[in-house]
Amino acid sequence: MAANRPIFRQAPNVPLPARLFFTVWMAVWLSIVILYGSTQNFWWLCNVAQFIVLWCVWRPLPLLLSSQAGTVVLVGLFWTLDFAAGLVLGESPTGATAYMFNDELPLILRATSTYHMWLPLFVLWLCRSERIGYDPRGPWLQCLIGTAAIVGSWWFGNPERNLNFTQAPLGIEQVWLPDPVYLVCLCIATALLVYLPGHWLVRAATIRKPI
Protein backbone atom coordinates (compact mmCIF):
# COMPACT_ATOMS: atom_id res chain seq x y z
CA MET A 1 0.00 0.00 0.00
CA ALA A 2 2.77 2.42 0.91
CA ALA A 3 4.44 1.83 -2.45
CA ASN A 4 1.30 3.08 -4.18
CA ARG A 5 1.15 6.19 -2.04
CA PRO A 6 4.55 7.86 -2.16
CA ILE A 7 4.95 10.78 0.22
CA PHE A 8 8.48 12.03 -0.41
CA ARG A 9 11.38 11.12 -2.65
CA GLN A 10 14.89 11.84 -1.48
CA ALA A 11 16.46 11.65 -4.95
CA PRO A 12 13.98 12.71 -7.64
CA ASN A 13 14.70 11.81 -11.20
CA VAL A 14 13.86 15.27 -12.51
CA PRO A 15 16.72 16.44 -14.74
CA LEU A 16 18.37 19.69 -13.75
CA PRO A 17 17.59 21.33 -17.14
CA ALA A 18 13.87 20.72 -16.51
CA ARG A 19 14.09 22.29 -13.06
CA LEU A 20 15.99 25.28 -14.37
CA PHE A 21 13.60 25.71 -17.30
CA PHE A 22 10.57 25.91 -15.05
CA THR A 23 12.34 28.12 -12.53
CA VAL A 24 13.34 30.60 -15.24
CA TRP A 25 9.82 30.51 -16.65
CA MET A 26 8.37 31.32 -13.22
CA ALA A 27 10.79 34.22 -12.78
CA VAL A 28 9.79 35.65 -16.16
CA TRP A 29 6.08 35.06 -15.55
CA LEU A 30 6.17 36.63 -12.09
CA SER A 31 8.00 39.69 -13.39
CA ILE A 32 5.53 40.26 -16.22
CA VAL A 33 2.45 39.80 -14.04
CA ILE A 34 3.80 42.17 -11.39
CA LEU A 35 4.86 44.81 -13.93
CA TYR A 36 1.92 44.67 -16.34
CA GLY A 37 -0.87 43.00 -14.42
CA SER A 38 -1.82 42.53 -10.79
CA THR A 39 -0.64 40.28 -7.99
CA GLN A 40 -4.31 39.43 -7.46
CA ASN A 41 -3.95 37.14 -10.48
CA PHE A 42 -1.96 34.80 -8.26
CA TRP A 43 -5.24 33.72 -6.63
CA TRP A 44 -6.37 31.91 -9.77
CA LEU A 45 -6.28 28.14 -9.19
CA CYS A 46 -4.09 27.56 -12.22
CA ASN A 47 -1.60 30.16 -10.98
CA VAL A 48 -1.58 28.72 -7.47
CA ALA A 49 -0.75 25.42 -9.16
CA GLN A 50 2.31 26.94 -10.82
CA PHE A 51 3.81 27.92 -7.47
CA ILE A 52 3.20 24.43 -6.12
CA VAL A 53 4.73 22.79 -9.20
CA LEU A 54 7.79 25.02 -8.79
CA TRP A 55 8.18 23.81 -5.22
CA CYS A 56 7.80 20.19 -6.30
CA VAL A 57 10.44 20.25 -9.03
CA TRP A 58 13.00 21.15 -6.35
CA ARG A 59 11.51 19.35 -3.37
CA PRO A 60 9.50 16.46 -4.82
CA LEU A 61 6.33 15.70 -2.91
CA PRO A 62 4.17 13.33 -4.98
CA LEU A 63 1.06 14.09 -2.94
CA LEU A 64 1.47 17.84 -3.34
CA LEU A 65 2.24 17.60 -7.06
CA SER A 66 -0.68 15.24 -7.58
CA SER A 67 -3.04 17.67 -5.88
CA GLN A 68 -2.45 20.12 -8.74
CA ALA A 69 -2.08 17.71 -11.64
CA GLY A 70 -5.77 17.24 -12.36
CA THR A 71 -6.51 20.95 -12.19
CA VAL A 72 -3.59 21.83 -14.46
CA VAL A 73 -4.49 19.19 -17.06
CA LEU A 74 -8.24 19.77 -17.21
CA VAL A 75 -8.10 23.57 -17.02
CA GLY A 76 -5.27 23.60 -19.56
CA LEU A 77 -7.26 21.44 -21.96
CA PHE A 78 -10.38 23.58 -21.57
CA TRP A 79 -8.39 26.81 -21.92
CA THR A 80 -6.62 25.60 -25.06
CA LEU A 81 -9.83 24.46 -26.75
CA ASP A 82 -11.61 27.69 -25.85
CA PHE A 83 -8.73 29.83 -27.07
CA ALA A 84 -8.45 27.85 -30.31
CA ALA A 85 -12.18 28.27 -30.90
CA GLY A 86 -11.80 31.97 -30.17
CA LEU A 87 -9.11 32.30 -32.83
CA VAL A 88 -11.51 30.79 -35.36
CA LEU A 89 -14.67 32.58 -34.23
CA GLY A 90 -13.08 35.87 -33.31
CA GLU A 91 -14.13 35.67 -29.66
CA SER A 92 -14.12 33.20 -26.80
CA PRO A 93 -17.24 30.99 -26.97
CA THR A 94 -17.40 30.60 -23.18
CA GLY A 95 -15.78 33.85 -22.07
CA ALA A 96 -13.02 31.96 -20.26
CA THR A 97 -10.32 33.27 -22.60
CA ALA A 98 -12.04 36.52 -23.59
CA TYR A 99 -9.18 38.48 -22.03
CA MET A 100 -6.83 37.02 -24.65
CA PHE A 101 -8.71 39.06 -27.28
CA ASN A 102 -8.78 42.25 -25.23
CA ASP A 103 -6.43 44.72 -26.91
CA GLU A 104 -6.48 46.93 -23.83
CA LEU A 105 -4.36 44.35 -22.02
CA PRO A 106 -0.63 44.33 -22.85
CA LEU A 107 0.22 41.63 -25.38
CA ILE A 108 3.15 40.43 -23.27
CA LEU A 109 0.79 39.87 -20.33
CA ARG A 110 -1.69 37.94 -22.44
CA ALA A 111 1.12 35.88 -23.94
CA THR A 112 2.09 34.54 -20.52
CA SER A 113 -1.27 32.75 -20.34
CA THR A 114 -0.20 30.42 -23.12
CA TYR A 115 1.45 28.31 -20.42
CA HIS A 116 -1.94 26.60 -20.23
CA MET A 117 -0.96 24.85 -23.47
CA TRP A 118 2.31 23.28 -22.34
CA LEU A 119 2.12 23.08 -18.54
CA PRO A 120 -0.26 20.06 -18.60
CA LEU A 121 2.31 18.08 -20.59
CA PHE A 122 5.08 19.12 -18.20
CA VAL A 123 3.03 18.10 -15.17
CA LEU A 124 2.05 14.76 -16.71
CA TRP A 125 5.74 14.13 -17.36
CA LEU A 126 6.53 14.93 -13.72
CA CYS A 127 3.79 12.56 -12.57
CA ARG A 128 5.38 9.58 -14.29
CA SER A 129 6.58 6.95 -11.86
CA GLU A 130 10.21 7.39 -12.90
CA ARG A 131 10.04 11.13 -12.15
CA ILE A 132 8.16 12.36 -9.09
CA GLY A 133 5.19 10.03 -9.30
CA TYR A 134 1.44 10.34 -8.85
CA ASP A 135 -0.40 9.94 -5.55
CA PRO A 136 -4.12 9.11 -5.96
CA ARG A 137 -4.95 11.07 -2.80
CA GLY A 138 -4.08 14.28 -4.64
CA PRO A 139 -7.67 15.37 -5.41
CA TRP A 140 -8.58 15.28 -1.72
CA LEU A 141 -5.71 17.59 -0.87
CA GLN A 142 -6.71 19.81 -3.78
CA CYS A 143 -10.18 20.16 -2.27
CA LEU A 144 -8.53 21.88 0.71
CA ILE A 145 -6.08 23.96 -1.34
CA GLY A 146 -8.69 24.89 -3.94
CA THR A 147 -11.27 25.87 -1.34
CA ALA A 148 -8.73 28.12 0.38
CA ALA A 149 -7.85 29.74 -2.97
CA ILE A 150 -11.48 30.27 -3.94
CA VAL A 151 -12.44 31.78 -0.59
CA GLY A 152 -9.26 33.86 -0.54
CA SER A 153 -9.86 35.20 -4.05
CA TRP A 154 -13.41 36.18 -3.08
CA TRP A 155 -12.32 37.81 0.17
CA PHE A 156 -9.20 39.63 -1.00
CA GLY A 157 -9.76 39.99 -4.74
CA ASN A 158 -11.28 42.86 -6.66
CA PRO A 159 -14.85 41.80 -7.61
CA GLU A 160 -14.30 43.16 -11.12
CA ARG A 161 -11.58 40.56 -11.68
CA ASN A 162 -14.02 37.71 -11.00
CA LEU A 163 -11.16 35.57 -9.67
CA ASN A 164 -11.95 31.85 -9.88
CA PHE A 165 -15.44 32.88 -11.03
CA THR A 166 -16.38 33.93 -7.50
CA GLN A 167 -18.56 36.73 -8.88
CA ALA A 168 -19.79 35.49 -12.25
CA PRO A 169 -19.48 31.87 -13.46
CA LEU A 170 -18.11 32.08 -17.00
CA GLY A 171 -19.17 35.70 -17.23
CA ILE A 172 -22.78 35.12 -16.13
CA GLU A 173 -23.62 37.45 -13.24
CA GLN A 174 -24.41 35.53 -10.07
CA VAL A 175 -27.69 36.91 -8.72
CA TRP A 176 -29.46 33.77 -7.54
CA LEU A 177 -27.80 32.95 -4.23
CA PRO A 178 -26.36 34.79 -1.22
CA ASP A 179 -22.58 35.05 -1.53
CA PRO A 180 -21.74 32.52 1.23
CA VAL A 181 -24.11 29.94 -0.25
CA TYR A 182 -22.76 30.56 -3.74
CA LEU A 183 -19.17 30.11 -2.52
CA VAL A 184 -20.03 26.75 -0.96
CA CYS A 185 -21.73 25.64 -4.17
CA LEU A 186 -18.78 26.91 -6.22
CA CYS A 187 -16.27 24.95 -4.13
CA ILE A 188 -18.34 21.77 -4.43
CA ALA A 189 -18.93 22.24 -8.16
CA THR A 190 -15.22 22.87 -8.77
CA ALA A 191 -14.34 19.67 -6.96
CA LEU A 192 -16.88 17.65 -8.95
CA LEU A 193 -16.26 19.26 -12.34
CA VAL A 194 -12.50 19.95 -12.18
CA TYR A 195 -10.59 18.08 -9.48
CA LEU A 196 -12.16 14.64 -9.90
CA PRO A 197 -12.37 14.55 -13.74
CA GLY A 198 -8.84 15.93 -13.86
CA HIS A 199 -7.73 13.16 -11.51
CA TRP A 200 -9.20 10.53 -13.83
CA LEU A 201 -7.45 12.08 -16.82
CA VAL A 202 -4.08 12.10 -15.06
CA ARG A 203 -4.45 8.52 -13.85
CA ALA A 204 -5.35 7.38 -17.35
CA ALA A 205 -2.33 9.18 -18.78
CA THR A 206 0.27 8.16 -16.20
CA ILE A 207 -0.59 4.68 -14.94
CA ARG A 208 0.95 1.98 -17.07
CA LYS A 209 -1.06 -1.19 -17.52
CA PRO A 210 0.83 -4.49 -17.42
CA ILE A 211 1.29 -6.13 -20.78
What's the number of extended β-strand segments? 0
Low-confidence parts, pLDDT < 50 over ≥5 residues?
Answer: 6-11
Q: What do the pLDDT scores average to? A: 89
What string, H for helix and E for strand, traces the elements in order?
HHHHHHH
Structural class by SSE content = mainly alpha
Q: What does the oligomeric state look like here?
A: single chain
Separation of termini?
22 Å
Number of structural domains: 1
List keywords for this structure.
mainly alpha, 211 residues, 7 helices
How would you characterize this protein structure?
It is globular and about 45 Å long. The model is unreliable at 6-11 (pLDDT under 50). Helix 3 crosses helix 6 (138-156). With 211 residues, the chain is mostly helical. The protein is 61% helix and 0% strand. The chain has helices at residues 16-36, 45-58, 62-89, 107-112, 115-126, 138-156, 179-206. The protein starts with 15 loop residues before the first helix and ends in a 5-residue tail after the last helix. The longest helix has 28 residues, at 62-89. It has one domain (14-206).
Summarize the SSE layout with pairings:
Layout lengths: L15 H21 L8 H14 L3 H28 L17 H6 L2 H12 L11 H19 L22 H28 L5
Summarize the structure.
The chain is mostly helical and about 210 residues long.
